[in-house]
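Forum > Structural Biology > Help requests

Title: Can anyone predict the 3D structure of Branched-chain amino acid ABC transporter permease?

Hi all, first post here. I have the sequence for Branched-chain amino acid ABC transporter permease but no way to get a structure on my laptop. I'd be grateful if someone could post the structure tokens.
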Amino acid sequence: MLLVQQIVNGLMLGSVYVTVAVAFTLTISILNFLNFTIPTLFMVAGMVSWGLAYFGLPFGLSGPLAWPAALACGAVASILCSLLVERFTFRYMRTRHGDSTEHAIPLVSSLGFLLILENLIRIFYGSDSQRFPGPSSDLTTQIGGIFVRIPQLVSFVIVMVLILGLVWMMKHTRIGRGLRAIAENPDAATILGVEPNKIVPVVFMLTGLLCGLAGALFAVNYGEVSPMMGEDIGSKAIAGMVVGGLGSLWGAVAGGIIVGLVEMLTIHFFGADAVQVAVWGALLVTLLMRPQGLFGHNAIGKGKL
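Reply #1:
Sure, ran it for you. Structure tokens for Branched-chain amino acid ABC transporter permease below:
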């Protein structure tokens, strides 16, 4: 029964990795670069939520906010930061240097934003881990002898519904078709009438939304936030994305869940110290046996959505 409990815990943790892995997948498959700010957007959502729930709005505009309002504001902050990154990693750089998607400018500038945002959070809130004032009651239910926290279960359902909605949008809406066209061939998409300056921000809005949701759900479910919280989540989300297959949305879902299960089962059998070895060992084995991942394609960054 304890093993089944760990599997359930792994599924719940995996839902967080899934959300961040899908955010990585969107930027790689559509814009063909690794957005280093994604773990920081996750962290911004969690830390801003905590700050608003503990201190309230800046400049004394309000007292501490209720935790649902604080989480919503944290997610909005993540989206705004993501749009700021888009403005200066793509729009400005492309205007000055041509097609910035063909070289390392977006990658390096996104790394700069990662460091800036992370250190701004440290300046405002300090470097220590903080307890998030979430639901006051335990909110744990027992299903067939398995203990499940209701916020975790709700979070899992929300994540799955969001991913299904994203997949539907990519296949059946005009914006989704535009994003897929840019992923296939940016020049041809422009000739056919797709406007990158209107479509590309959508990618960053979705990225900010996914990371904001993941950060908010993590704060509620695990009750702790810190300026460093994005690093571990981000690295394991990348591992999940690669295991599932670069550029595949369903691959990111499968990979994130697999990483969550591997982590919890490793803790169960070998202890927490072996988690990194198990996760990255699984990644290396996957690359050796199937370099494109479980659901990936051979042409990285082109036409996987």
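The beta strands are 130-131, 140-143, 146-149, 224-225. The chain has one domain: 2-289.
Shout if anything looks off.
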